[in-house]
Amino acid sequence: MNQCHHFSGFVNDTARLCNESKSIEVDVRARHGSRGKCSCCHQPGPTYDHLGIRRFEFVPFWGFMVFLLYRMRRIECRRCGVKVEEVPWGNGKHQMTTAYVLFLAHWAKKLSWKETALSFRTSWDKVCQAVEVVVQWGLAHRELGAIRAIGVDEVQYSKGHKYLTLVYQIDANCTRLLWVGKERTVATFEQFFDMIGPDLSGKIEFVCSDMWRPYLKVIRERCSNALNILDRFHIVAKINGALDEVRAVEARRLVQDGIEPVLKKSRWCILKRQENLTTGQKLRLRDLLKYRLQTVRAYLLKEQFNHFWEYESPTWAGKFLDQWTTMVMRSRIEPMKKVAKTLRNHRELILNYFRAKKEFSSGVVEGLNNKVKVTMRKSYGFRTFRITEIALYHVLGKLPEPEVTHRFY
Ligand SMILES: [Zn+2]
After folding, report:
1. pLDDT at 210
2. Which CATH number fits the domain 149-230+361-377, given the four candidates 3.30.420.10, 3.10.290.10, 3.40.50.450, 3.20.20.60?
3. What's residue 357's pLDDT?
4. How far, in Å, is the centroid of ligand 1 from the Cα of 83?
5. Which of 184, 286, 322, 351 is the least buried, fewest Cβ under 10 Å from its Cβ?
6. Res 407: pLDDT
7. Whole-number pLDDT of residue 292
8. Rounded to the nearest whole angstrom, what is the distance from the C-alpha of residue 81 to the centroid of ligand 1?
9. Domain-by-domain residue ranges, the chain?
């Protein structure tokens, strides 16, 4: 204990194994003649009296829970009056030592919260509490610095009925989650700009977003110097969404008409990128393309659109976009036409992708978006906004942690 958890003014005294509770108790006492510090002003003062013994949970050891037992002093502070002392290994609010809080939060980043609780024989609530403490400390101590590029994205949570707005920093040397907001309204996204203030907002050069109207409005108003880029990931997702709709409707119709169910299990053949198909799926696709189906025509349109991303010049990319949308408008495939119309309406913002020299490609936002989904899937405990928010900041926020003299992990 003296090697890894020692604080001046305090002595680690006797330790004993309690067989019944399978725990180790370590008595901690104040060094003779030392003065306790007031928990309000952090200044040392004379002891007024002693309170009952308090237990602080410490990092478990060889499968035993470990507790520090300490009789808290009350300090007669010149400024604040009689106050409970502050202890360097924890704070007055909860029963875990800081070392244990950091330990649990560390593992809760790698494992699910439930697995963390099981592994260290503690409760889900305690893991949650630990993560919350670490996240709050991190948010209070993080530096926002100069932010060059941000991405805004929405994600569904709580069984898909509710939305969150997520704002990421996507600079080349720093990608992290900056902010989480409830809903996906204008008011939501404005809160982010309120948080960082007009100074930082004015310095943002690029904003990647999808076509969600409230976001576009806020970007225009609060971040007018920045180039708003509609990123590739969201556009591709829109086209895939339309294609999937065409396929689903047609598949149902074929079944109703009693025709051979050629579209059965075709979903991933047509949605996946060609280079990612398995051999079986490739054969299946080749087979499928022989049929005169709406799905096949929509698929070919989707595939053609891939060339769009190969352009360097915004002008030529714009020409391609015009030709492609015209072609789709003539296709009489309604879901695809709807996408084409949307793309036409956002022509300039889409071409900003090329104006930014593809610097802020979808890869970053897509990667973060996937991480968010994995984090949310990892625990079915994240039903409330607050818990989801904490979990996301913890995993994706790259938050600073308090300095410690010894790491227990
Ligand atoms: Zn004081």
Report:
1. 87
2. 3.30.420.10
3. 79
4. 7
5. 286
6. 85
7. 82
8. 7
9. 1-94, 149-230+361-377, 232-355
80 Cα: distance to centroid of ligand 1 (angstroms)? 4
214-267 pLDDT tens trace: 999 999 999 888 989 888 888 998 999 999 999 999 888 888 887 777 777 778
Q: Give the Å distance between the CA of 403 and the centre of ligand 1.
A: 24
Ligand 1 geometric centre to CA of 41 (Å): 4
Cα separations in angstroms, 384 against 104, 151, 377: 21, 24, 14
Q: How far is the CA of 76 from the centre of ligand 1 (A)?
A: 8
List of the chain residues with pLDDT < 70: 160, 361-362, 379-382
Say how far apart CA 114 and CA 380 lie, in whole Å.
Answer: 9
pLDDT at position 31, please?
Answer: 94
Residue 108 alpha carbon to ligand 1 centre in Å: 36
**Can you give the pLDDT at residue 362?**
61
The reported pLDDT for the residue numbered 406 is 86
Give the Å distance between the CA of 86 and the centre of ligand 1. Answer: 10
CA–CA distances in Å: residue 81 to residues 74, 77, 134, 274: 10, 5, 30, 73
